[in-house]
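pasting for ref
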Amino acid sequence: MNRDIHEQFNNLKCCVIIPTYNNAATLPFVINNILAYTNNVIVVNDGSTDETRKILKTYPSISTIHFENNKGKGNALRTGFKFAVDKGYEYAITIDSDGQHSGDDLTKFIEILKNEPETLVIGARNMDQDSIPGKSSFGHKFSNFWYRVETGIQLPDTQSGYRLYPIKALDKMHFYTSKFEFEVEVIVRAAWKGISVKCIPISVFYAPKGIRVSHFRPFKDFFRISVLNTILVILALFYFLPKMFILNFSSTKLRIVLGSNETTLRLSLAAGFGAFMGIFPVWGYQMLLAFFLAHLLKLNKVIVLLASNISIFPLPPFIIYAGFIIGKLFVKHPVDLAFNMQITFATVKTSLIQFFIGSILLAIFSGITVTLLSYILLKIKRKNVTQRNAGVDTEVHREKEL
């Protein structure tokens, strides 16, 4: 037994949570493997009908939670997190009970925890192995794609159940899912909250078909995950991405311009012009053209370039579609998008005209809207800065008098 790694688990207030359901054949191996590194083990028996209860009785040193009925992996993890926080733990490493993960990789998570606390770490599997099931490989690529759409973060493996969670930081968050899709919800919403999410390479073993036990139901669980991703994409488009844009807009660059001599109106016009150029249908040249025109118009180039990022991934398809729909109102013979539409020179020409007209109108509307919102935001921000500076000057003057 490595006493040093045991002490690190204790000092870092970290535990290992094992959600399990009818994995009696591999559960003892997983527990014994983990106990070589830490005794801070919590097993959540999610209504198993096999020998799981009997096996867990042979491990009196670990904590166990039993459900009479199967409630889903997400519910098991959420229950384990709450139980761990109540016991004083601040971090939890989750590991599946089917034997695919190695306890040796626990040291990798601990090293990350020591150097990068408050980071949610996912153990990235090598999905190019011959033993990887086809459905797992497809689900892996599917999940990675939508995670990038929803957060802008590219990760090599978003489906692995071998993870390090900052459970204390997640404790006040309310989650809505209780099955396999919880592992998608938690990493998306953690990223939205500002928690760093990253991957580290881990080893993985998939037992041969016939021996491997999987409780993932391809149709039902894939459908639930798809519904969740649909909701998260909508929230990302109308909440997360606008929020990040505003936060970035009000970060270091905004603090610099707040103290500049430029008027609020000119700064607002720069933001509005940047938004206009970000949507104006000159795809691929918006940034270059925006910079050149900002120079000619003597607008703040930093603000213009920052605001032109309104068309960053994954918004372009939605912007294009919105432009096409708006343009439909301003052409004599509009084209309706349909898979069975006849593609002729006339329909292509009308579609392009319809798109360009709609995009230009959308760009104008967006530019005006961003200008007005920026003006209000900058007025409030500058007023607050002025009041804070006045307060500091008053305190300094009082100290000098004393």
